[in-house]
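FW: tagging you since you asked about this chain on Friday. Here's the raw sequence from the shared folder, copied in full. Didn't touch anything.
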Amino acid sequence: MKIQQTALLNIMVLFLGFGIVGETLGQADPMWLEDWNEALESRPEVLASTGRIAPKDEPGTPLVIHGQIFEPDGSTPAAGVIVHAYHRDQAGFDFGPDDRAFTTWRLQGWVVSDSEGRFEFQTIMPAADHLGREGPHLHFTVESARFGRQWPPVVYFMNDPLLPESQKARSKAAGKFGWVRETVTVDEVQHLDVKFRLKEQADF
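HL: got it, structure written out here
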C-alpha cells in the first residue's frame, strides 16, 4: 500500500539525514525507483531553466526556488544538468489525498540548468508530513552528462521545529552547499536559494 511504502521511505530518509537510501542502483530503495521510473515517463522532451512543480491553481503559499549547480570542484557552474524536484502538498501528502491517488509524486517538475548552472522552480511551500513524522522539505535528483544521476541532499527549512539541531549544525558546516535554508518573503511570495555540488560518481 502507498501509505506503508511512504512511511518506510520516510524512516529511511530520517535515518540517513540526507535523502534517498543507497548510492548505487542495487542499493536504492525499490519503491522510490518505481516512482522515479514513472516520473521519467512524464519528463518533457524540451526543458528550460525555469519550470513549475505545483500548478498555478494549487492551494498554498507561493514559493520560488532559486537553484545553482556546481561541478565537483565546488566553484565551476555546471550547465546542462537536468533537475527533477518534488515535495508534499499543503495537506502533507506526496501522492494525492490519503497518498492513494497516484503511483508517482503528484507535485513534481523538471528543468535544466543554464550556462551559469542556475535553475528556478515556481511552486508552493510544502507542508509537514500529515502524520507528523517530519517537517516540510524538498527532494531533488540531478542528471549530468559527465557524472550521471545523483541525489543532492534533501532541502529542509530553517524554521522547521522538527529538524534536529545536529542537522542544522551539519548543514551550516557545509557552507554555501548547506541543505537547511531560510526563506525570504517578497510581496507575499517565499523565496529560497539552494546550491548543489555534483559528486564525481553517479548514485544510481
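FW: Residues 1-26 have pLDDT under 50 and may be disordered.
HL: agreed, and The two ends are 25 Å apart (CA to CA).
FW: great, closing this out.
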